[in-house]
Amino acid sequence: MKEAAQTNDIVKISASNPVRTDCEFSRIVVRPVSIKGKACFQAEMFKGAQAFHQNIPPEELSDWIASYVQGVYKQTLFVMTDREVTYLTSSKGKVTRLEKPAAHEAVRDGNDRQKKYILNVGKPVPALADLGVFTQDGKVVAGMYDKFKQINRFVEILDDVFKSHTGKLTVLDFGCSKSYLTFVVYYYLTELRHIDAQIIGYDVKKDVVANCNALAAKYGYRNLRFEAADVSKDKLSDEHIDAVISLHACDTATDYALHYAVRHNVKYIFSVPCCQHEVNNSISAGQGDLDVLLRYGIVKERVSALLTDAIRAMTLEDEGYKVDVMEFVDLAHSPKNIMLRCVKTGKTSRKNAAAIRSLLEKYGFHQTLFELLNK
Ligand SMILES: C[S@@+](CC[C@H](N)C(=O)[O-])C[C@H]1O[C@@H](n2cnc3c(N)ncnc32)[C@H](O)[C@@H]1O
Question: Of 120, 159, 242, 322, which sits with the fewest C-beta atoms within 10 Å of its C-beta?
């Protein structure tokens, strides 16, 4: 049991059913919390209708468990991020250890369906408390629930691809901003999946980049760094890159992320575009069947956004990617909820280019990704 308490991915420990008559508490629950930005554990100890609390520094948890839990309760459950370990203690002191894969703590979503998340409420990602997504005790901050849903879903989609990854993995995040996603992806890859991962986040805002670097340093995330760069024109990494991610990188910043991926033979792209102004600002009616969709401002804006993403997807297909265009969260959690999930197959073609070019010429609009790749 001491050994289980030394692992660094504990989500919850609960002990119940005392085997000893001198036991003061009927039940104990221990959870990881963050107090004044410092990670520690909090034990909630139940006596009758009362609950008592004690904070335990991580380095003392193992001894604390040995003193207050081991041999005291019939059943002690350790929930880790990837497994659950149960210790059953008989009245004669015989201990049986059982282990099974984790059934992650369930969180109810708005539709009252049970959801399983990779990131769990009650187990805060340390940097996300600094960034204001989690409270110090691991609850999602009111007003940040949509962001929590987005980053959680993003990581789930990454997990489908990377859960069994071995070896190094280098990821670029375009338009990282405050870097909620970047920190979570780094935490997920390195701490939950134990992958030798490196991430570079790019954003044009120097002050934001400086804050993110300071936060990465605070948590000793030595393979996570941020660079101030305008991704449309500055020199970016020329290392081998395995995956490009972007979550709501503004307007054509998404195109430059996709363009980088194509030009650098990046195998995986996970991109959720945002504010597709380019087509909306340059498309003109009066030329054909699409005119009915361009008459009303709001309809034109939405059609332009969808047209942009359809052209991006078709262009990536021509460049040898298998592309899934998918809703990555419910619309209620973000109106910008389409993800392009792409895997390089290497089967290039020009089957979509002619149709796209014809649309561009007919309606007079610009689409950066297509134009960069089809000069
Ligand atoms: C909505 S924020 C992204 C949010 C962030 N990815 C997240 O997950 O919370 C868009 C960011 O893209 C950045 N951006 C826009 N154009 C850029 C460019 N050309 N180069 C680098 N960053 C850019 C902006 O500075 C902004 O911080």
Answer: 322
d(CA 311, CA 353): 9
pLDDT digits (tens, 9 = 90+) for 18-73: 998 888 899 999 987 767 667 788 899 998 878 889 999 888 999 899 889 998 99
pLDDT in tens, 177-202: 999 999 999 999 998 899 999 999 99
Q: Which atom of ligand 1 is nearest to the CA of 176?
A: 6
- For 144-170, how does the pLDDT look when each residue is reduced to its tens digit (9 = 90+)? 888 888 998 999 999 999 998 999 999
- List, in order, residues 6 or more apart from 7 with CB less than 8 Å away: 78, 80
- Residue 28's nearest CA partner among 13, 41, 10 is 13
Q: Is 90 exceeded by the pLDDT of residue 6?
A: no
Which residue segment(s) compose the domain that 168 sits in?
107-373
Reported pTM:
0.72
d(CA 21, CA 23): 5
**Judgement on whether residues 45 and 134 belong to the same structural domain of the protein:** no
> Ligand 1 centroid to 73 CA: how many Å?
51
From 309, 202, 339, select the one nearest 260 (Cα to Cα).
Answer: 202
Q: Find tokens 């508490």 and name the residue.
A: 25
Query: Which two three-digit tokens encode residue 141?
Result: 């901050």
| Cα(260)–Cα(65) distance, integer angstroms | 51
Structural domain tally of the chain? 2
Is the Cβ–Cβ distance between 334 and 146 less than 8 Å?
A: yes
Q: Whose CA is nearest to atom 17 of ligand 1?
A: 253
Q: Does the beta carbon of 232 sit less than 6 angstroms from any atom of ligand 1? A: yes
- Residue nearest atom 11 in ligand 1 by C-alpha distance: 175
Q: Which atom belonging to ligand 1 lies closest to the Cα atom of 151?
A: 8
Taking a C-beta distance cutoff of 8 angstroms, is the pair 240, 215 a contact? Answer: no
Is residue 125 located within the same domain as residue 255? Answer: yes
Q: Ligand 1 mean position to 93 CA, how many Å?
A: 58
Asked whether residue 77 falls in the same domain as residue 111, the answer is no
What is the bridge-based pairing of β-strands 38-47 and 10-18? unpaired
